[in-house]
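Protein: DUF218 domain-containing protein
Species: Faecalimonas umbilicata
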Amino acid sequence: MKERKTRKYLIILLSIVMILIGVGSYFYMKKMPKVTLTEKVDMPIPEKSGRGKEMEDLVPMYAEEYVDDPILKQAVTYFRRWEWTQLYRELDEIVTEDPDYLDAYRLQAEAYMINKDYEAALSQLDRILERDRTDVHALGVTTVLMHILENEEGEKERLLALEKVSGQAADAVRNVLEETDELLKQPYGSEPQTDMIPQAIAVFGQTPKENGKPSAGLLSRLECALELAERFPDAKIILSGGDVKTKFTEASVMKEWLLEQGVAEDRILLDERARDTYGNAIGILSICKEIKVHKVMVVGTILHLPRAVTTLTLYAKAEGYDMKIDSAGGGEHEASDEGERLYTYVNASRAAGIFSKQDYEKFQ
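Structure follows.
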C-alpha cells in the first residue's frame, strides 16, 4: 500500500515538473525576438557532377557528422563525390517523406551553399526554424546567408535571436562577418602589398587541362609564383590542389612546370588532397605547421586572392596558429567580382567554424 502511494506521488510530481517545463518553454519562446522566415523554394537545378568515387577522399571531407546516420549516409557519399543530381534528389526525397528530419535540411543547405544557391539554402534552414526557433545552427548560418543576400533587416533579426539562444555563437558569427568585410576591403594585385620577406610561397591550385598541362588560369598563377620564387630564393614553395576535375592533381601539375623552369625540387612541398579553397587552406596550414613557417605569400589569380587570403587567414586564426599573410596574383582581372565576393563569406564561415552543425556544438 505504501509503495503504491509513493509511486502515485512520484507520478504526480513528474507531471507537475513536465507542466512547469512546458510553461517555461512557452514563455521562453514568447520572449524570443521575431524572426521573419522565408517561403519554401523549389529544389535548385544541380550543378554538373564531379569525377565521382575518385573525389571521395579529398579534403575537406564533407558532412562528417552524418557519416554514420543510416538515413543520410548515402547522401554524404554523393556529396563527397560531387554527384549533385543524385544528392539533391536523395535529400529532397528524405524531407518529403519525413519533413521533421531536420538534419536532412542542414545537409541540403550545406550543399546549396557550396554551389552558391543561397536562397535555396536559406529556405531549407528556415524549415528547421519553423519547427524550432531556438536552433543555434540554423540561426547562425541563416545570419550569414542574410549577410550574403544583403538583407540587413533579416540579418539583424536573426542575430538578435541568436544572441538570445547563445551569446557566444552570436559573437562568433558577428566577428567572422566583420573580419571578412575588412579582408575583402584590402588591396589585392599582381605585386605584394607589404615589404614582408616570406618564409613560404603558397600557391592555390586551379584545374589543369585534360592532358595534365597548366590551363591559362593555372599558368598565370605559376608565372607569378616563379617570379616570387626568384625574388625570395630562401622561401619554400607550397603547391596545393588535388585531382578534382581531372586525373592529375593540381599540385603535381604545378610542380612539374616549376621544375621545368629550373626551380630546385627541394624547395617544393605538395598538398595533393585539397578539393577547394577551404581544402587548400587546410593543406597549406598543415605544411606550415610541419616546417614551422609563419610568414606566407599567397598566390592565386588576382580575382581569387580575396577568397584565398580570407580563407587562410580565418582558418589559421581558428586553429590558433600565428600567421602573417601577404599576397600577389596572376591574370588581368581585378579582385572585384561580385560572385567571388559573396562566395568568400561561405568559405570564411567554413574556415572559421560557423558553418556545419558540428561547428555549433561548441556553443551549446
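Remarks: Residues 2-31 form the longest helix (30 residues).
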